[in-house]
Structures are given as structure tokens and as C-alpha cells.
Design goal:
Zincin; alpha/beta; metal ion binding; Collagenase (Catalytic Domain); Neutral endopeptidase, domain 2; Peptidase_M13; 24 helices
């Protein structure tokens, strides 16, 4: 069967000496056409689709008793009850996403509530405020308003809890130079397009402006109508003025004009942002500060207040160190925000909310973003993804480890984990055994390389801690702060974002959790983590055609062995080589580095 599959992917009518690619892959190319909504297509994509079908079957067709019967060993009664509850919570989340009728009936109302929260936290009481652009003129407003730093700081803090990160982002992770300690990293953020270079492409900006104007109008006109028709109260002083005083309907600016202002601000933000290449330098992106030095470098933001507002009660003290990915970015950001009209900042924040959450609303909000995606990726904007595919992606992003438990029960077992571990060990040995043959390596570098390979931690299949995907109680605890409502998909998402934010901040001041994973078990991918010196292979990629416990070893080595070797070499590429065997970022100064420097300079 496996041999037949390989042969069917070949084109044996071609001379391999003339066109080896066509000889090897011609049969596969003939059978498969790149779908109109994809920019690439290969076995990674096919396996991803197969895994999605498995998860779809679990969430739509299976009931808990059928899941229970495939478990290798019976669970104790309390764990069985918890497992059942976890399973139905997972189905509840999925079903809330699948309920398009209810999502359609809500329209833009969920977005209205987020926008009202923004206007309450960041009121701009001038004639150019986006808040006042809904069609009302208030005579006592001033022409422009000064920037309120406390409101700005509170806004950034509040937006982070709904997974919106304008201007700056943060993450708590291993300190690159002390990898056993967690540290707070602050980084650039706030570009809707994939990277700064896109803002220089005129044909992309035309589409971007069109999409932005359409969504701003759809969301904010919706808000105006929602307030008028539903009598919705925002508890905002300006809104009170609307109810109490006037009420002459006028339009100050069109959505295209407002879009122009937002885009100009984003372009300015793009100019001060690091490029992907610059961001890939672990030494240049490690800039240690304390609160005092950070406030001196970037005084527009009330950093002490910002961090304290997000810290949980279990972390009573401000961190003693904060790592910036770029000093210059935060210095320039402070200047840029200071010189930008608050009304433009307010409009930009509103756009950030809309761009992040529009895909969680109905088709009226999804379609414009699909048009933008099509422009960026060169795919057909008219191909709408199947709803179940959208919802499975949402499940994976939100409850990935919980879904992973049931995926593993269905699709990963037997000797698969042990066989994969043995293969990794063998490939590591082969790597080490080849090092003496590399004459351009000096003895010190060779010794360090061997030490690093020997120290690599390998994680296979699924996590057994943080959370333990084999233990329903641990999964319940891991997701305990998420509130599940089968009738409100949007609120389920917001609950998960808040839970994730709180979970991250609780890690501050704690030792690094060496058991945590950055991918769910069903993911068709693998990764190398330099600060932990670990390679991770989820169950999702340990499937045919990459791996099969029934395949001959030479087939597995030719398939998943390639992936293992790829991840292993990440420990020695331009990024990974700067970390030692313990995961510590170090100054590399060896003969190997001198060769690289000489090569790059010529």
C-alpha cells in the first residue's frame, strides 16, 4: 500500500536525469490542483485537512460514551465525570461557533459593546472624535483635545484583555540570558498588515483602505443605529450630552477620510518598526530595563500603572526587569503618539478592535477581511471557507489541548511515541557522528555542538504536564477560567482571551515551566525552542505520509526523519547557534563565527 502510494505520486515516463522533480512528483501534481483559496498546497495541507476531519467527527458525530470506549484504560469515576464535562464544554464552544443564525441575528452588536468600552476609556471630546462622527454635533466641544496619558495607558491595558494590541504587545516567557527565569518582554505591535513592507505597496494599500472604510462604516454606523433603535446607554459623558442636549444630525468626515488618517498613522508606525530580518536577531532584540529607565526612554506611557493594572493578586510586585525588543522603537513610539491627534489615535484603536474581531461576526463583517486576505495572498476572495473549518480553527486556538486529548485518543497510540523517540535519538547520534568530519569546525565549537545535541529535550505526541492531556482533571483546571455559553460564541472568545492574558501574567516571577508546549497535539508542524533547547513533535504530524508505526523504517526516516533533521539544525542556524546547551543567549566568539563574518563581508 505504501509503495503503491509512492509510485502513484511519481511520473515514471520522465527521465530522472533530465527532470528529477517531475519524475518524483509528477503523478502527485497531476492529481492535485492548488485550491482557489490557498496560496500553496502539499502533503502538510492534506494531512491538516485529514486531521480536521477527525476533529470534526469527534465534535459533531461522537458522543461521550463512544469516546470513553476507545480509551486505553478506564478512568476513575471522578475523572470520568470531569472528562465528560470537558467533552461537552468543547462541543458547546464548537456549536456556539457553528450557530450562524444566532451570530447573524446579533450582527455587529458584540462589536458595539467593545467600541463603547473604548470610547469610555479613551474619550476625545473634540469635533474630530470618531465617537462624535456617528452623526451628532455637540456645540460645546472644543476644536481639539490634549492627549490624556492615563486614559491612553488604561486603554492599552484594557484592549490587551480582548486580544487587541495596538502600539505595543507583551509576553511573559523565558529570559533569553537566564532561561530558567520568566521575564516580561515588550515588543512592537499594531500593524494590521503582515509586516512594514506591505505599507509601501500601493496596490495593497488601495484594497486596504477600501476594506477599512467599509468595516468602519459597517461597525460604527451599526453602533449609531444600535444606540438610536435600542436605547443603548454607554455611560459616557459625551453620550449623556447627546441625550440631554441636541441633536442635529450631520457628518463631519467620510469613512474614507478617516481611513486615510488611520493609514497615515499606521505607515508612520511601520517606519519605526523593525523588519522581520531585524526582529530575528536575538541579541539585538534583548534590551534590559527597569521601570525607571523605561519611563525615561518612553515617557508617553505610564508604565508602572500599565503593568500594575494587568498583574494578578498573586504577583504583588512590579518586575525588576523588563526586556524591550527595540529601544529605538519605544523611543520613537513615544514621540509619534505625542504628536498624533487624540482623535486619530481613537480612530486607530477602533480600527484595531474591528480588524481583530470582525471575523468572529457575521458574513457582512467577514467578507471585507476575506477580500484583504485574497489581495495579500493572491487567492480567490469569493471562495468562502466551510464554517466547520473556521470553527475548528477557533477551537484549536482557544481549547487546543482539550481538543488534543480526544484527537490523540482517536488517532495516536500504540508504539508511535516510542518509535518517534527512537528515531530522534538515532538522528541526533548521526548528527554528532558527522561533526568530526567537518574540518572547518574548531575543536571548541565541535565540543559545544556535541554538548548541545546531547542536551536537547524531545517532546513527542502530546504534553503530559501543563496541562497533562491524559488527565481530565488537569485539563479542567487549565481552562477553569473560561466561561462556556453554547448560545454566545463571541462571549466565549472574550472569556478565553481574558483567561489567556491572566494566565500569562501569573507566570511572571515564576520559574520557567519546562513542560509547556507552544503547539496543540493535533498540529501538523514541529518546532525547536532555543531557550529550552527542545524539539517538539505533536501527534498531528506523526501521521502518514510523514510517519506510520506500520511503515518500514526507511520510509519513516525519509519522511518524518527529514522534519526531525530540519528541527535539529535550527539549534545551529543563524538564530539557534547563539544559544548554548542550557538555552542561554551567549556571545558566540569562535572560529566558526569568524568564518561566517568573513563570508558575509565578501
Amino acid at each position: 500500500m505504501i509503495a503503491g502510494k509512492i509510485i502513484s505520486d511519481m511520473d515514471q515516463t520522465v527521465d530522472p536525469c533530465e527532470d528529477f522533480f517531475q519524475y518524483s512528483c509528477g503523478g502527485w501534481l497531476k492529481k492535485h490542483i492548488i485550491p482557489d483559496d490557498k496560496g500553496r498546497y502539499g502533503y502538510f495541507d492534506i494531512l491538516y485537512e485529514e486531521n480536521q476531519e477527525i476533529l470534526k467527527g469527534i465534535l459533531e458525530d461522537d458522543d461521550f460514551p463512544s469516546i470513553q470506549t476507545i480509551q486505553a484504560a478506564g478512568l476513575p469515576s471522578p475523572s470520568l465525570s470531569i472528562d465528560k464535562k470537558n467533552f461537552y464544554n468543547l462541543q458547546s464552544f464548537y456549536q456556539s461557533c457553528m450557530d450562524e443564525d444566532r451570530i447573524s441575528r446579533l450582527g455587529g452588536a458584540p462589536l458595539v459593546q467593545l467600541l463603547d468600552r473604548l470610547f469610555k476609556n479613551f474619550p476625545v471630546e473634540d469635533r474630530f472624535s470618531l465617537f462624535n462622527n456617528f452623526g451628532y454635533q455637540i456645540d460645546n466641544l472644543q476644536q481639539t483635545a490634549p492627549l490624556n496619558l492615563l486614559n491612553l495607558t488604561n486603554t492599552l491595558s484594557n484592549l490587551s484583555t480582548i486580544d487587541v494590541y495596538p502600539l505595543l504587545g507583551f509576553y511573559v516567557t523565558a529570559d533569553s540570558k537566564k532561561p530558567n527565569e520568566n521575564a516580561l518582554y515588550l515588543s512592537q505591535s499594531g500593524l494590521v498588515l503582515p509586516s512594514k513592507e506591505y505599507y509601501e505597496e500601493e496596490h495593497i494599500m488601495v484594497t486596504y483602505k477600501s476594506v477599512m472604510a467599509e468595516l468602519l462604516g459597517r461597525a460604527l454606523d451599526n453602533r449609531s443605529n444600535f444606540i438610536i433603535e435600542m436605547g443603548y446607554s454607554t455611560s459616557n459623558n459625551v453620550m449623556d450630552d447627546i441625550y440631554e442636549y441636541t441633536i442635529e444630525r450631520v457628518w463631519f468626515k467620510g469613512w474614507e477620510e478617516i481611513s486615510d488618517e488611520i493609514i497615515e498613522f499606521e505607515k508612520a508606525l511601520a517606519k519605526i518598526s523593525l523588519s522581520p530580518e531585524e526582529f530575528n536577531d536575538p541579541e539585538a532584540t534583548y534590551n534590559k530595563h527597569n521601570i525607571k529607565s523605561l519611563e525615561k526612554l518612553s515617557p508617553t506611557f505610564l508604565w508602572s500603572h500599565y503593568i500594575r493594572s494587568l498583574l494578578p493578586p498573586t504577583v504583588p510586585n512590579l518586575p525588576s526587569k523588563i526586556i524591550l525588543t527595540s529601544n529605538k522603537y519605544f523611543e520613537d513610539l513615544s514621540t509619534l503618539v505625542r504628536k498624533t491627534q487624540p482623535s486619530i489615535l481613537q480612530a486607530y484603536f477602533a480600527w484595531q478592535i474591528i480588524a481583530r474581531h470582525a471575523n468572529s461576526l457575521d458574513e457582512n463583517f467577514q467578507a471585507p477581511l476575506r477580500r484583504l486576505k485574497a489581495k495579500l495572498k493572491g487567492v480567490d476572495e469569493n471562495v468562502k471557507p466551510k464554517r466547520w473549518e473556521v470553527c475548528l480553527n477557533s477551537v484549536d486556538e482557544t481549547l487546543g489541548f482539550m481538543a488534543g486529548r480526544y484527537y490523540v485518543l482517536k488517532a495516536f497510540g500504540g508504539r508511535s511515541k516510542d518509535m518517534a523517540s527512537e528515531m530522534i535519538d538515532a538522528i541526533k547520534d548521526a548528527f554528532v557522528n558527522r561533526l568530526p568530519e567537518l574540518k572547518w569546525l574548531d575543536a571548541e565549537t565541535r565540543k559545544k555542538a556535541i554538548e548541545k545535541v546531547d542536551a536537547i529535550i524531545q517532546k513527542i505526541g502530546y504534553p503530559i504536564k501543563s496541562p497533562n492531556t491524559t488527565d481530565p482533571r488537569d485539563l479542567q483546571s487549565y481552562y477553569r477560567n473560561i466561561k462556556f455559553d453554547e448560545n454566545n460564541y463571541f462571549n466565549n472568545l472574550l472569556s478565553s482571551y481574558l483567561s489567556g492574558s491572566e494566565k500569562q501574567w501569573k507566570e511572571l516571577g515564576q520559574p520557567v515551566d519546562l513542560y509547556s508546549w507552544y503547539m496543540s497535539p493535533q498540529t501538523v508542524n514541529a518546532y525547536y525552542n532555543p531557550t529550552a533547547n527542545e524539539i517538539v513533535f505533536p501527534a498531528g504530524i506523526l501521521q502518514f505520509p510523514f510517519f506510520s508505526s506500520k511503515a518500514p523504517e526507511y520510509i519513516n526516516y525519509g519522511a518524518i526523519g527529514m522534519v526531525i533533521g530540519h528541527e535539529l539544525t535550527h539549534g545551529f542556524d543563524d538564530n539557534g547557534r547563539q544559544f548554548d546547551a542550557s538555552g542561554r543567549l551567549i556571545q558566540v566568539c569562535t572560529y566558526y563565527l569568524l568564518i561566517v563574518i568573513l563570508f558575509l563581508s565578501n
